[in-house]
């Protein structure tokens, strides 16, 4: 099977290319290595052709349909990478199909789920899709229930710490005299040296 031609047909089909998709599903051993290689390159932010980028949408769905576990790590790298590219490639499928694809390709690496869920740089809809997959694994017993109970508490504690640091920085910026503010680090101020209100 000519994988380059297959990628081109996936990229530029005006309608859902059912025949091409079925051929991919029937020739798994031939197409999966090429598909995963392309996904890895996207996940590493390596430049890919316009044709290859357009094909990623259907390729991810095909890998999900195949339940290809080797696709999970490259897929997570891709989702955590260039968010403009992720939104451009995956589009509305983030909310509807991505959780199912993650569930189907999951290789047991819960750490990758947490990495993306906790990454504030990742699109909120992508993080939500990963979270929905995570809740499925909790419900199915693939993630320990005690671990699942700890996670929200730890996230709340982390978020509270982040908010506290932000507030300290804002208070310092607002209350410090300019001469002291110049000696403070980015987003912070030397509150010990803050002048008392007259």
Features:
198 residues, 2 domains, single chain, mainly alpha
Topology readout:
Layout: H1 3-12, H2 18-26, H3 28-43, H4 50-66, H5 72-79, H6 83-90, H7 93-96, H8 98-105, H9 110-117, H10 124-139, H11 145-175, H12 178-181
Tell me the major beta sheet.
none
Q: Hey, roughly how much beta strand do the residues contain?
A: under 5%
Low-confidence stretches: 164-198
Radius of gyration: 23 Å
| Overall average residue pLDDT | 82
Order of helices and strands: HHHHHHHHHHHH
Would you count the extended β strands for me?
0
**Helix content, binned percent:** over 70%
Shape: globular
Secondary-structure-derived class: mainly alpha
Distance between the termini: 81 Å
Overall number of domains: 2
Q: Tally the helices: what do you get?
A: 12
Summarize this entry quickly.
With 198 residues, the protein is an all-alpha fold. The chain is built from twelve helices and no strands.
Describe this structure in words.
The chain is an all-alpha fold and 198 residues long. It folds into 2 domains: 3-143; 146-198, no CATH class. Helix content is 70%, strand content 0%. The protein is built from 12 helices and no strands. The protein has helices spanning 3-12, 18-26, 28-43, 50-66, 72-79, 83-90, 93-96, 98-105, 110-117, 124-139, 145-175, 178-181. Helix 3 (28-43) packs across helix 4. The longest helix has 31 residues, at 145-175. The chain is globular, with a radius of gyration of 23 Å.
